[in-house]
């Protein structure tokens, strides 16, 4: 069978640089003559076989940057290399040819409503002048790959959003690209369909060795499938690193805010206000941040036993990023300063850092208000659950 996968996997075995942007800038002049610097001096390298995320708020310049990767927008300055070729130096004909190596999928799918699923996926191959047999041999395995073999004769209006995006993905893969660009491809989909489409992209990345550049404003998307991520703000890349590093040690407020959408970090103001009204005496408010590798060790119950530590869990969420625990628990304890110091040192040895938030218990500046929110315990490690139940009873 003419599998679209065979040649690709072999080509991308060795990790080398697939995409290189050097000092890329892009400015627009609108019809009133106003100048916008959409992308400012971006240099980065993306390795072959990598899933690279680009995240940022609306207007940060993400779409502009990704469109410079296939020269849909020619950058105002800087150079773009893809698969060893400098795209910015190619003639129009050579560029058309080079673009076959770069597939793209979009938020709104961009399918032709008059063509069936099969017809949409076949389109780029028809345009390239391939024979019916060649097209069938390429399209059928692709429909199989994206899970749409049974829907091949349906029209876009007869498909769900997730199915339309699968058609978009199959069509983007038809010309056997080395790189797949995805601009908010899951933004129009519900969370469950988003997960399924991201799983499909991960499968394509692994099975075909395809390099994927994925633009999103959702940290959840980055968390689920990206290897590395660049954070953009006002046209610049302000932060770049492995997803785990960026989650653990975000350097910018923009990044922290984006991570906060995925993993709750701050104590909800409702809990804080309730605590402020209580007589807490010498109680300390502590945040335990899980950033270690000891996923299976019952660290909290160990700390409780060793140091005779008593505490209530007020709020928290511990999740996994790239297979590593990540998150925080905020606790209230009446343990002595010496016990807290010992327990903190023990936890620190095992990758759990302790931050003292007791100052937050001081009365809020007058005029501040907040909506009352319930204690939010999204995910707790098994060993902490009985404590959490008790804590919730005590705080309530
Ligand atoms: N064709 C254009 N002409 C003028 N300005 C533009 C044009 N396209 C984009 N811009 C401006 O460039 C900046 C970056 O836009 P871009 O579409 O790259 O942002 P984005 O990060 O993709 O945002 P979103 O998340 O909303 O899609 C914005 O200020 C936008 O208004
Ligand atoms: Mg955009």
Strand order of the largest sheet: 6-7-8-3-9-10
Number of helices: 14
Find the CATH topology of the largest domain.
Rossmann fold
CATH architecture of the largest domain: 3-Layer(aba) Sandwich
Task: Calculate the mean pLDDT score and round it.
Answer: 86
The end-to-end distance, rounded to whole angstroms, is 64 Å
- Broad shape: elongated
Compute the CA-based radius of gyration.
Answer: 25 Å
Stretches where pLDDT falls below 50 for ≥5 residues? 1-13, 367-389
Q: In the CATH hierarchy, what is the superfamily of the largest domain?
A: P-loop containing nucleotide triphosphate hydrolases
- What is the domain total for the residues? 2
**What order do the SSEs take from the amino end to the carboxyl end, as H and E?**
HEEEHEEHEHHHEHEHEEHHHEHEEHEEH
* Major β-sheet profile: 6 strands, mixed
Q: Assign a percent range to the helix content.
A: 25-40%
DSSP strand content = 25-35%
Strand tally, please?
A: 15
Helix- and strand-based class? alpha/beta
CATH class identity of the largest domain = Alpha Beta
Bound molecules: adenosine-5'-triphosphate, magnesium ion
């Amino acid at each position: 069978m003419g599998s679209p996968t065979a040649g690709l996997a072999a080509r991308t075995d060795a990790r080398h640089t697939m995409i290189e942007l050097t000092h890329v800038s892009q400015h627009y002049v609108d019809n009133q003559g106003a100048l916008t610097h959409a992308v400012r001096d971006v240099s980065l390298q993306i390795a072959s076989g990598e899933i690279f995320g680009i995240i940022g708020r609306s207007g940060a310049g993400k779409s502009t940057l990704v469109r410079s990767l296939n020269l849909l927008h020619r950058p105002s300055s800087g150079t773009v290399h893809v698969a060893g070729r400098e795209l910015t130096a190619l003639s129009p004909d050579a560029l058309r040819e080079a673009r076959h190596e770069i597939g793209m999928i979009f938020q709104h799918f961009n399918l032709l409503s008059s063509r069936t699923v099969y017809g949409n996926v076949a389109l780029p191959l028809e345009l390239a002048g391939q024979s019916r047999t060649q097209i069938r041999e390429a399209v059928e395995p692709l429909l199989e790959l994206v899970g749409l073999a049974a829907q091949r004769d349906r029209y876009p209006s007869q498909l769900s959003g997730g199915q339309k995006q699968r058609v978009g993905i199959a069509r983007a893969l038809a010309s056997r690209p080395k790189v797949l660009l995805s601009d908010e491809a899951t933004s129009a989909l519900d969370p469950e369909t988003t997960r399924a489409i991201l799983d499909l992209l991960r499968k394509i990345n692994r099975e075909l060795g395809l390099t994927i550049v994925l633009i999103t404003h959702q940290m959840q998307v980055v968390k689920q499938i990206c290897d590395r991520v660049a954070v953009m703000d006002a046209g610049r890349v302000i932060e770049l690193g492995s997803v785990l590093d960026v989650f653990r040690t975000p350097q910018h407020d923009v990044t922290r805010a984006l991570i906060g959408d995925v993993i709750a970090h701050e104590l909800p103001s409702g809990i804080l206000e309730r605590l402020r009204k209580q007589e807490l005496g010498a109680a300390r408010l502590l945040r335990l941040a899980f950033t270690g590798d000891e996923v299976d060790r019952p660290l909290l119950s160990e700390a409780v036993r060793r140091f005779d530590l008593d505490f209530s869990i007020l709020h928290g969420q511990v999740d996994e990023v790239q297979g590593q625990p990540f998150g925080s628990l905020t606790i209230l304890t009446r343990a002595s300063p010496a016990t807290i110091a010992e327990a903190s040192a023990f936890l620190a040895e095992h990758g759990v850092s302790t931050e003292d938030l007791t100052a937050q218990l001081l009365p809020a500046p007058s005029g501040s208000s907040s909506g009352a929110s319930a204690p939010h315990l999204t995910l707790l490690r098994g060993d902490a659950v009985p404590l959490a139940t008790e804590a919730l009873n005590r705080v309530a």
